Amino acid sequence: MAAIGKRGTVTEAAGFDPEADAQRLRGAMKGTGTDEAAVTEVLSHRTVAQRQRIKEVFKQAVGKDLADELSSELSGNFRSVVLGLLMLAPVYDAYELKYAMKGAGTEEAALIDILASRSNAEIKTINAFYKKEYGKSLEDAVCGDTSGMFQRVLVSLLTAGRDESDNVDNAQAVLDAKEIYEAGEARWGTDEVKFLTVLCVRNQKHLLTVFEEYKKISGREIEDSIKREMSGCLEDVFLAIVKCIRNKPAFFAERLYKSMKGLGTTDSVLMRIMVARAEIDMLDIKAEFLKLYGKTLHSFIKGDTSGDYRKILLELCGGE
Questions:
Q1: Could you tell me the pTM of the whole model?
Q2: Do residues 302 and 310 touch, judged by C-beta distance below 8 A?
Q3: In angstroms, rounded to a whole number, what is the distance separating the alpha carbons of residues 53 and 1?
Q4: pLDDT tens digits for 264-280?
Q5: Dihedral (C-alpha) 272, 274, 275, 280: value to the nearest 10 degrees?
């Protein structure tokens, strides 16, 4: 029943009693109205594994599905967060990807946030679950909804073939940096395939060396070159890959900041990161947020959301 990662704000509840939790949730939905505070208190302080156990016990005791029951009782963003918390991590990712490609238009941010930041094992599990749940491969879905080089980068990420060793081949790193430079800054037009081959295939340590070498050759950071050479979703996905390689919690901190700064809130991004990272690396995301923006993530969420939605997000965020 342990947490998925070691740096989350959501940790295993001590003295966990799934029967009592199921009973409490059942009581929260009895009669007129719903006791949202009870729902928040139970679900935001249990790990994903513990929530699965509560779902099993609830179904045994009541003969109904907990997610279905809560879905019909709740509404809005609060409901979306609660339903996300009840899903296993790869199930939630698959659901978010499916939802991002639903209807007219695609929420490219979801495709980028998820596929650029997950490990090979995570992507393989997402692929398997997507196929099982939605009856078609995630690759087919992505190909039907995206095009061009952006599509090719996503398809490459979906193969879950990134080298995950710690080996750094210094000579190859220099060559990789040179090839990217020659494919971009050094020529008229950009050969994006070279970027794809290096950024989607090489391991993290090797890429950090490539980025250093690139700076020596070109005199600028690789992020700056990507911004100069590319645009739109392709620029976004390559930048996301580079940022995740450099510092994943900082990548998520920036995504959270951008989802809340200025007018309006991009709730889809805010919810997805808060739900998906709560028991993996939320402590590090909070620290990076404070370092980057001089304000706490807690204060940002508090100022940008309201009601039960705000309450559950703040619980997932943990204290200041």
A1: 0.94
A2: yes
A3: 9
A4: 789 999 999 999 999 99
A5: 120
